[in-house]
Write a structure and sequence with these properties.
The complex is a heterotrimer of chains A (237), B (303) and C (348).
Chain A lengths: L3 E10 L2 E11 L4 E6 L5 H9 L6 E6 L2 E2 L5 H7 L1 E4 L11 H7 L11 H7 L16 H13 L5 E5 L7 H8 L2 H6 L3 E5 L3 H7 L2 E6 L2 E7 L5 H9 L1 H5 L1
Parallel strand pairs in A: 3-8, 3-9, 6-7, 7-8
Antiparallel strand pairs in A: 1-2, 1-4, 4-5, 9-10
Helix pairs in contact in A: 3-5, 5-6
Chain B lengths: L1 H30 L6 H19 L3 H28 L4 H22 L17 E4 L3 E4 H23 L1 H11 L1 H6 L4 H26 L7 H15 L4 H21 L3 H20 L20
Antiparallel strand pairs in B: 1-2
Helix pairs in contact in B: 1-5, 1-8, 1-9, 1-10, 2-3, 2-4, 2-8, 2-9, 3-4, 3-8, 5-6, 5-8, 6-8, 9-10, 9-11, 10-11
Chain C lengths: L4 E4 L3 H18 L1 H4 L2 H26 L8 H16 L4 H23 L4 H21 L9 E2 L8 H28 L1 H11 L1 H6 L4 H27 L1 E2 L1 H4 L3 H13 L6 H16 L4 H17 L3 H10 L9 E4 L9 H10 L1
Antiparallel strand pairs in C: 1-4, 2-3
Helix pairs in contact in C: 3-7, 3-10, 3-12, 3-13, 4-5, 4-6, 4-10, 5-10, 7-8, 7-10, 8-10, 12-13, 12-14, 12-15
The chains are: A alpha/beta (237), B mainly alpha (303), C mainly alpha (348).
């Protein structure tokens, strides 16, 4: 039994269909990269998995249980955490408070304040600062820390590098190996194809709301993924 | 000396207005909704206390401990039945719904209790008229001082709760970004119910104060809403301290106006309110601020 | 294959409705010759309710502004009429001028009140109404909360007074309805309806939101002011507490909410319903008001589009051609582009 099973998921905004008939599964501890151009439906897919968006069709199972109708906080309690696009920190609260709030998920495990700060050492010196007034990289680290505090079994990371300087991106990505090592399953939305293929065990490339190509990172060539990314195969067909 | 006395009385009166405003400001901070039934709910609390006192023959100070849980229950019903539903209907619906609730409450109270004005003043013994004299011309009413102290304790208590407890963090997080709060594992619906219950307890205390320091009748809610709203707007920042300061400024304005001419008491309060509005408009930052956001911690005083 | 679209304002049904409406207007205008005094009195009240409903709807439905202080302009309309009449202005001139004073007051209030948003505006207007009531009560002519009467009306015989008031009410009602109809079909009206549907989106496509809201606010002030002056003409007495009471706004909200907020026909329907309910249940006093409150809450929560809004959504009903309707098909000449059809329709 897979940790996550998605079957025939369709979700949209009003009349606009963002992702259509998406099916895939994810094993515990597996890292999946989701690539695709802007508007391919990656963010909507992640939000649907986290319970922040209500899909119109399809089923999502997590650890054997059907969670399709569950609200976001119930999914967090089961062990799904989303680091949302734009980070969505509680800007008027301190970094420490942003981390503490995630205790509401009431999940215990390896991740507590000490281990989160150990994994994200850049937060140690800014715990009492307001989340709205720290740098983008620090905010992203705080958002990851907040998600870790819920002790997730599945972590959904939406474009960690968005709006960050290259150095800040390196700082944020430095934590990933540790999370993978800890056995957390990860779905990673990433624009940088090279980084996605280097980090993930498996890759899904989406175009206009549909899965174009998927497979183990090693089995896919950059050319194949690039072609899927821009829809070249489809037009040739 | 008469002016000093009036200033002092105004400050004390301001404590009452701050007490009345606390629930309005808090609910707005959490849900961005101005509860037009606020005043009517305070009057409802006063009538509940009246009924409890009549049935059980106890003093309002004892009856209060039965009235507040009932208000908490009403808060839960109000949140789940009215506010939660109206929040999803766009910005106009909460206003229309809560205005309808005020209409409903006012007239139900009228149907039950009639037009008579009621007061707890006869039930609280010497507290209703007792005072401390300072010099020749200054008298500090014991009841007014008690109400002021209650307002202060309530506001400080709320401040500590919001800044120091996990519940407070949950309320603030929900106010800032309900979806992100939900993704962090807390149920925004439940948090809003808790916030509504807390607001209703504050409204209950304010209703008791209303009945002790003056009189009330079924249609008194509108005026209480207006005073509360004026205190919140004059206070500007909308923070806890802003609410207290706004209440005090309103109290001072009314008392100073009354000293010039008894007719001017309320008028000068409204005029100060409009003046503050105009000044804020010039400064370009007219927000009914926010109980929960900026200036929450005294150390972070930002614009 | 290319599809051709055109835009038309009315359907053939709306044309029939217009003809029926015209006949109704003519019949109403002959009212004093045909109807009993009792019916005339009731119709005057109905006309005033419709005026109140359409004015509040202009503000909330098209301006996106909920005010619980429209009684400010209702009271000003009546008070200004009394003041003007006291200064020697002929009474049937003073009444419409009183209504105009409502619009003027709204114009002044718009300078600062429209900076408020949402609920702040709603209660801010109530504060303003309370303040104006207290200031009016200071006028010696009004004698505090005791009030006064529009004595000049006593010079007229009751029958002719009733007929004059009836005609004035009808004229004001038709004038306001016509103005609103014209306004909604103009560019301003398109802007108003855009704001009604989505203020942020309207702003982003360049709709001048502030002037449009001001227009709605002044129109609402004019309507409420006229209604107040007419109410004075019908009842003769003036007490500040009654005219500046929040119940007027409660009635307006009820009529608009039940009828259909943001529709042209809904508030008229709502006013007729309100009038009927009051006639049937008004004698039950407070229970009637409790019912109004309960129905208001119910509509706000469960049917926010009101009766007309629901009918319009389900059946595509539209009696009066205030909207646009996209028609598709072969009826349009092939050489015309859609935009030129829109243009020619606009000029026609």
């Amino acid at each position: 039994m897979s940790l996550l099973e998605v079957a025939g998921l369709t979700a949209g905004h009003g009349l606009l269909v963002a992702c259509q008939n998406i099916s895939f599964s994810l094993e515990a501890g597996e890292v999946l990269a989701l690539v695709g151009a802007n508007g391919a439906g990656k963010t909507t897919l992640l939000r649907s998995l986290a319970g922040a968006h209500r899909p119109s069709q399809g089923q999502i199972s997590f650890a054997g249980a059907n969670i399709t109708g569950l609200p976001a906080h119930r999914r967090t309690a089961l062990g799904i955490a989303l680091v949302p696009e734009g980070r969505r920190l509680f800007t008027d609260m301190t970094v420490l408070e942003n981390l503490q709030i995630a205790r509401a998920a009431k999940r215990t495990g390896d991740w507590d304040l000490a281990s989160v700060l150990d994994a994200l050492p850049q937060l140690k010196s800014i715990l009492t600062r307001r989340a709205g007034e720290i740098s983008g990289g620090q905010q992203q680290a705080t958002a990851i820390g907040r998600a870790l505090m819920t002790n997730p079994r599945l972590l959904l990371l939406d474009e960690l590098s968005l709006g960050l300087s290259p150095i800040a991106v390196e700082g944020v990505y430095a934590v990933l190996p540790r999370l993978i090592e800890a056995g957390i399953a990860i779905i990673l939305v990433e624009q940088d194809l090279r980084r996605a293929m280097a980090t993930a065990h498996r890759l899904i490339c989406m175009l206009e709301g549909q899965i174009m190509v998927q497979g183990p990172s090693g089995s896919l060539t950059r050319e194949a993924v690039t072609a899927a990314y821009f829809g070249l195969n489809r037009q040739a067909a | 000396m008469i002016w000093l006395n009036q200033l002092l009385q105004g400050i004390l009166l301001g404590g009452y207005y701050a007490l009345m405003a606390a629930g309005l400001s808090f609910l707005f901070g959490v849900m961005r909704v101005i509860n037009l039934a606020h005043g009517s709910l305070a009057v409802l609390a006063a009538f509940l206390l009246l009924m409890i006192d009549h049935w059980l023959g106890v003093s309002p100070f004892i009856g209060l401990w039965l009235m507040l849980p009932i208000m908490a229950l009403i808060g839960m019903v109000f949140q789940l039945g009215i506010l939660e539903r109206s929040l999803s209907g766009g910005p106009l619906i909460p206003l229309l719904a809560t205005f309808g609730v005020s209409l409903l409450l006012d007239n139900i109270l009228f149907a039950i209790f009639g037009a008579n004005t009621q007061s707890f003043a006869p039930d609280i013994g010497s507290l209703s008229y007792g005072s401390w004299a300072i010099g020749h011309s200054i008298d500090i009413s014991q009841l007014d001082a008690l109400i002021f102290a209650t307002a202060l304790v309530l506001l400080v208590g709320m401040h500590l709760l919001l800044t120091r407890s996990q519940l407070g963090r949950m309320i603030r997080a929900t106010a800032i970004d309900a979806e992100a709060a939900s993704l962090s594992g807390l149920d925004p619906r439940r948090v809003r119910v808790v916030a509504s219950v807390m607001a209703m307890i504050m409204i209950g205390v304010a209703g008791a104060a209303l009945g002790m320091r003056s009189s009330f009748e079924p249609y008194a809610g509108g005026a209480q809403l207006i005073y509360a709203f004026e205190a919140v707007v004059i206070g500007g920042t909308g923070s806890l301290w802003g609410t207290l300061i706004g209440g005090i400024m309103l109290g001072i304005a009314q008392n100073m106006g009354a000293t010039i001419n008894p007719h001017l008491s309320q008028i000068s309060g409204h005029v100060v309110f409009l003046l503050v509005l105009l000044v804020r408009m010039r400064m370009g930052s007219l927000r009914l601020g926010n109980f929960l956001r900026k200036r929450m911690r005294p150390s972070v005083v930002s614009a | 294959m290319t599809q051709y679209y055109g835009v038309e304002r009315g359907t053939s049904r709306t044309r029939i409705i217009l003809i029926i409406t015209s006949c109704l207007v003519v019949a109403l205008a002959c009212g004093p010759a045909l109807m009993s005094a009792n019916i005339l009195d009731h119709l005057i009240v109905l006309f005033i309710y419709i005026i109140l409903a359409i004015s509040w709807n202009a503000l909330a439905g098209y301006g996106g502004l909920i005010s619980v202080g429209q009684q400010a302009f209702f009271g000003i309309g009546a008070y200004a009429a009394i003041r003007l009449s006291y200064y020697g202005v002929p009474v049937y001139l003073a009444l419409p001028l009183g209504g105009a004073a409502g619009a003027m007051a709204a114009g002044i209030a718009s300078l600062f009140m429209l900076h408020l948003r949402g609920g702040e505006f709603a209660i801010g207007m109530w504060v303003l109404a309370t303040l104006i009531q207290q200031l009016v009560s200071l006028d010696p002519l009004i004698q505090g909360s005791t009030g006064t009467s529009l004595l000049a009306l006593n010079h007229f015989a009751p029958a002719s007074r009733r007929a004059d008031t009836y005609w004035l009410s009808l004229a004001v009602l038709l004038g306001l309805l016509g103005a609103l109809f014209w306004l909604l079909r103009s560019r301003q009206g398109a802007a108003m309806q855009a704001i009604r549907d989505d203020e942020e989106a309207a702003r982003s496509i360049g709709v001048a939101v502030a002037p449009t809201k001001r227009l709605a606010f002044v129109f609402a002030g004019l309507g409420a002011g006229m209604a107040g002056a007419l109410w004075l003409a019908a009842s003769i007495t003036f007490q500040p507490g009654t005219y500046f009471g929040v119940q007027w706004t409660a009635y307006m909200i009820f009529m608009v909410l039940v009828g259909g907020i943001g529709t042209f026909e809904g508030p008229i329907l709502g006013a007729i319903l309100f009038f009927a309910l009051e006639t049937i249940f008004g004698a039950t006093g407070v229970w009637y008001l409790i019912g109004l409150g309960a129905v208001s809450v119910g509509f706000a929560l469960f049917a926010p589009r009101g009766i007309w809004g629901a009918l319009e959504a389900r059946f595509g009903w539209r009696l009066l051609p205030v909207g646009y309707r996209l028609v598709l098909g072969p009826g349009f000449a092939r050489d015309k582009t859609a935009s030129s059809i829109v243009q020619s329709d606009h000029h026609a």
